[in-house]
Amino acid sequence: MDTQVAVIAPPKRPRGRPRKTLGERDDGNRRRELILGAARLFRRKGFAATSTRDIAAAAGMQSGSPFYHFKSKQSLLFAVMEEGMQSAIAQQQRALDASPAGLRPADRLRVLVRNHFDVLLGPGSDFIPVMLYEARSITPRQRAVIAELQSTYEAAWTPVLAALQSEGRLKAEVKLARLLIFGALNWSAQWYDRRKGATLDQLTQAAMGLFIGEAG
User: Fold this and answer.
1) Contacts of 40 (CB under 8 A, 6+ apart)
2) What is residue 68's DSSP assignment?
3) Is residue 15 pLDDT above 70, yes or no?
4) Overall pTM > 0.85
5) Domain boundaries, the chain
6) CA of 46: how far to CAs of 29, 62, 82, 84, 130, in Å?
7) What's the CATH number for 73-212?
């Protein structure tokens, strides 16, 4: 009796180049360069006016290459915001950890304000302004993720402001004061020019005088 051996055909390979796995994206590729370049372009030109060709050129890639790392331009925008906020949280925590123990609330606020100016205006500071002014270009679910990261960042400010209010140094309700303080600080991303005018230390001094009357 003849026997037949079943031959199992190999699975069909999907057309085009396969999307890289998370490990491949993070190992020896250009993902970080794409995010940094996109952040600069989104800040300078705006999300809508920036093409994927612009982003690829900034990273030294061919025009279609960004899609091997991100599904769309919008997903790249979200990555810019998410990684920017994660970086800001880590930077803020380092600033607080490096501060002397037992700082009075006013000095702790000074640390937070000075660090926030560095996050907004220092080297590699394109991430946060993009997050502030391009939030409408991401999905509601993505905005919820960014809002949670913002809450984590701002949580360090609440006990400091509450302590200042208890001392009589902060005259406003804590939540409203926090919103107004961040509104004032964040607007500096629109007008500040590091090549002329005040230093970040001088901005911090002015902000402290404005918020709690302590400019020294």
Assistant:
1) 58, 126
2) G
3) no
4) no
5) 73-212
6) 25, 21, 17, 16, 8
7) 1.10.357.10
